[in-house]
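Input chain follows. Return structure tokens only.
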Amino acid sequence: MSPFNAHIPVPADAAARRAMKPVVCYPVESLVAPDMRILDRARATMEKVGEVIVPPREGNTFEVPKGHFFRIVSVEGPQVGDLNLWNANDLSERFFSGKTRALHATHVTTGNRLWSNLPSLRPMATISHDTLGWYGFDEFGGGVHDVIGTRCDPYTNRLLSGSDYHHCCHSNLCRALAHHTGTDIKAVEPHVHDVLNVFMCTGFTRDTQQYFMKASPVRPGDFLEMFAEIDLLGALSACPGGDCSTSHSSDVAKCYPLKVEIYRPDMALLADWPFPERNGYQLQV
């Protein structure tokens, strides 16, 4: 409870009000689940066609054609990455972490999808393999690959510390997108959005319900793999927090690079895959 609410009287029926059963906001029984058997068959034929290295405390971009797979790979040490995704042909369509959280969970894994923003609202990528899928939720309520955090950014850092730091994930993503598009960094900044915190282990404290981070369980060789449902442009930042066991928005933590690998499967195996169109709803005046 906030200390500012300490003077608020507790009503006689407080216990009854708190005991009301929760209702899932978005029942997803009618949502068509991806056919993982098709993806598994396609995965068995994958051929690596490209890779990108993301240096520590920096960002980089990559492109993934529709029907290809990509992996975010831990290569030297435990390292968290902040991921942005866009429609490669239209930057106004981008990853929507809030709706992904509402349709799936606070943390995503194999079989979950990354959804795009309104009005498109369609799957951008489907998680096809997660070597950290064994983690689940720990005794603190922590899980891996969250869609609850935003991204470390220089504005919040200045608000809380009074100092400037230029390698926050927001800054890294902005520079990477500016370099990729050949556009001024201020012009591309509005396209940078809330992230999938890849490999990050997070949750909410039991007492104050504050967002927490703890040492990531990721180790070299672990990867998060996704299937591109549309042509994708991605940007990944190797977070200055390293494994996020201590701090971020500084040069204190030990940081490592991340690798993005692009794979092409036998495309004939995806002949029956229902690649998504933009959402069909038409807004009424």
